[in-house]
Amino acid sequence: MSKQNSYKDLPVPEFVRIREHLKGKLHPMRYEHTLGVSYTCIALAMRYGYDLQKAEMAGLLHDCAKRYDEAAIIKKCRSKGIELTENELNAPATIHAKLGAWMAEHKYGIDDPEILQAIACHTTGKPAMGLLDKILYIADYIEPRRDRAPRLPEIRKLAFEDLDEALYQIMKGILGYLEESGAYIDDMTRVAFEYCDAERMRRMEEAVTQMGSLADLKEEISQNDTGKQNGKNRRKSTGRQKRRRYQNH
Question: How is domain 9-199 classified at the CATH fold level?
Answer without folding.
Answer: Hypothetical protein af1432 (1.10.3210)
